[in-house]
Amino acid sequence: MTNSHKMKKISRKERERLARKEAIIDAAEEVITLKGFKNSTMDEIAEKAELGKGTLYLYFNSKTSIYLAICDRGSKLLNQKMAQVITMDIKGIEMVKEMGHVYLDFIKSNPIYFNAFNFFENSLSEDRLVESAIVDDLQEHGVEAMTYVVRALQIGMQDGTIRTNYDPKELGIIFWGASRGVIQVAYMKENRKSLKILSDINFSLESLVNSFIDIIGSGIKNDQ
Amino acid sequence: MTNSHKMKKISRKERERLARKEAIIDAAEEVITLKGFKNSTMDEIAEKAELGKGTLYLYFNSKTSIYLAICDRGSKLLNQKMAQVITMDIKGIEMVKEMGHVYLDFIKSNPIYFNAFNFFENSLSEDRLVESAIVDDLQEHGVEAMTYVVRALQIGMQDGTIRTNYDPKELGIIFWGASRGVIQVAYMKENRKSLKILSDINFSLESLVNSFIDIIGSGIKNDQ
DNA sequence: TTCAATAAATGACCAACAGTCATAAAATGA
DNA sequence: TCATTTTATGACTGTTGGTCATTTATTGAA
What we know:
The structure is a homodimer. By secondary structure, chain A is an all-alpha fold. Helix content of chain A is 77%, strand content 0%.
């Protein structure tokens, strides 16, 4: 009785703690969306969250930590959408293509996660990212996203819509990396007037991605 | 006479100034290679260059500015190598593939530029990057690299090794973006033990990139 | 209701570091 | 030789991420 009562209390506290953490992430997303990560200060995030700066550090170890939490949120969201594709009643090759579109839509409707993902990858190779807990979590999400792609490829190999001469895992890495690269370049083109690299080219993000998916699709699809 | 003498002096000064600038970039490359951009301080770079910190600011506006100069160096180097491919006596489709390999080799032998390029792109979408002079220069190099790819594609379309149903510029963007994406993912896999996303997969960077080039190659090559 | 104990919140404070500037040293050329 | 201009310097400043002693709120037993 006392025990369950106590348990309940702890559980409520836990919930409150989680809620506050989410609220801080909300605030950080707003501030960072507006000013970019580097130009956002902890004081600004604290003010937006209606908390003292010191309080933020009761919930997060560092500024980077908060940005990684945003990353985490984004990758969970993306994975949910990827998971849905697997449940669709379509051929494997169509699933793979659909995943490309899902990723594109995701980036277009959540640009902050685009930057956050890039930041994470950049940090992985530059900084000493000691936050092993959240980093492991993020990597786990990466593995999960990859798993969906690989599964779609396997489905396609079984239903005969995708060639079987490559290892599906290898193909998965390739498709994933290539999609990200194309969408990154195309996204930059669309969003930065100053990105002159493509200024005289007027393909829309969608048409670029569609063509890409066509090309890689015809590179992997079973022709016979 | 006096004039030409004066001209000569100015020219020598210019040369010395340029040389010192290069020396600072050298020093910065060393320090940043060792500690990463964020963890490197201007004092460290100054010490490595055997100069006072204030002196660095006679040659560069900011720490970021130095990193962009490193970027600049890297993209010039890469463009040189890309330009060589165009002069080779091979079919268009082979040129395109060769460019993928060139990019891969470049990243493998100059990892610092890999990070620098990523930093630049990230900054373009996050910061307010006011250094318009060097930014324009960098974008120009991007356009140049792209031009090589597009030219190779056009050559391939003319010699019949590449399908003509896509706009070569569109294809160029796609090939370029996809290559970067695949190499980025594969490079991360190879260099970060902690990158668990692919830990149970044992394809080498080369074999991944080779497969990718195969796939996209068969997606764009003229089959008949 | 009261109150001691525990937990949560706070903002003044600190250290690190990018960037500045008054001063000094070196180069120039008359 | 020396006045003038150019180049170099490091002490100094402002900003900001992160800390911690202190304050405030919550809890639960008496």
